[in-house]
What we know:
By secondary structure, the protein is of the alpha+beta class. It has two domains: about 20-110, Serine Threonine Protein Phosphatase 5, Tetratricopeptide repeat, CATH 1.25.40; about 140-410, Neuraminidase, CATH 2.120.10. Helices cover about 15% and strands about 35% of the residues. It has six helices and 24 strands. Strands 8-9-10-11-15-14-13-12 form an eight-stranded mixed sheet, with no helix packed on it. A five-stranded antiparallel sheet has the order 2-7-6-5-4. Strand 14 and strand 15 (about 295-305) form a beta hairpin. Helix 2 (about 35-50) runs antiparallel to helix 3 (about 55-65) and helix 3 (about 55-65) packs antiparallel against helix 4. The longest helix has 14 residues, at about 35-50.
Amino acid sequence: MxxxxxLLVQAPASTCPDVATCRADAxxxxxxxxxxxxxxxxxxxxxxxxxxxxxxxxxLARAQALSGRPGDALVMLGRIADLGGTTDAATSPDFAVAxxxxxxxxxxxxxxxxxxxxxxxxxxxxxxxxxxxxxxxxASSVPVASSPAASLAPRDALEFDAPGLExxxxxxxxxxxxxxxxxxxxxxxxxxxxxSRRVVNYVSAASxxxxxxxxxxxxxxxxxxxxxxxxxxxxxxxxSILHKLQLVSGRGLxxxxxxxxxxxxxxxxxxxxxxxxxxxxxxxxSRIFRLRPGAKALELVMRLDARRPTALTAxxxxxxxxxxxxxxxxxxxxxxxxxxxxxGWRNGALIGVQRVAGSSLIVRIPLDASGARAQPRHILAAxxxxxxxxxxxxxxxxxxxxxxxxxxxxx
Length: 411
């Protein structure tokens, strides 16, 4: 069965409603020297604009460089070069610091239309191969491993090298063309660059303030945020934090906890509705928490009449689907819809990872026009081992064998 939760939420009006307004506000912030606001507004402009617009991407690159993120600026300039765009980054004073980084010559070569060396920019602030990061340095500055021989062949598979990985959660950032992958064993997040196929540490527990265990992650592509849930304590007496990170850099932006800190909370999944409201799922007491834009604490929305929920997804601003030990509830189904480890929503169907007899299936479950009845499921792929996956745009990505991300195109 499937449970449809109607959550009538009034979202606050956006202060930056369209591309033109966002861009004008960003440029005004830059002119008055408020570079942090410039950066945030530039990100909003990119998210609201046409995908892969070189002009908007260059606006963001300027904002990254001026707000103290020169490594991120190089990544964005590299993306512009991949799209065939040209810039004045080689002479503009806005990029003076970025041009001092070791990776600048490679980016400059790409912008000039020349072939860049194989060790091209792979992540924000990637350290040179001989550098040794200090113990308290952010994890995003430490290369983990690379696989130069790996190739995207076939087209829908991306091989990478991350020894000892215990995967937890997968997300895709279409703007920077990178995957974010959780590593449960090492309490960290990795970034896998789609172009260079390089794997780097992105965020560690030490740098981000994660609790002992990572339990969930999701990308808010519209706003350029990464949401991560972490937990400490025994399963039935746990404490949880919901972390908000800047997607492009991994910089921590805020943390949110349940307003009632006396009750145990084990957050096992998180999703973002189109209006920017974040929902988190508590496994211990079968509760859904909500974090409205601008809020600092998680508020309780409701308790579910289902034990041990494991996954949720937002269909729109008002509807969530939740998977629990009795299934994905209230919608009568012709299938056994139990044991879901993640859920996504696209074009009237649920898509996710389902555990069946020790294996993992990637399944698509169409719903009827009312959203209240499930149709027979479609098995899109199968994995002999536990896996993680993420819905992004017109494709579903999943970890096939511990070192290969596969892409399933969706109609």
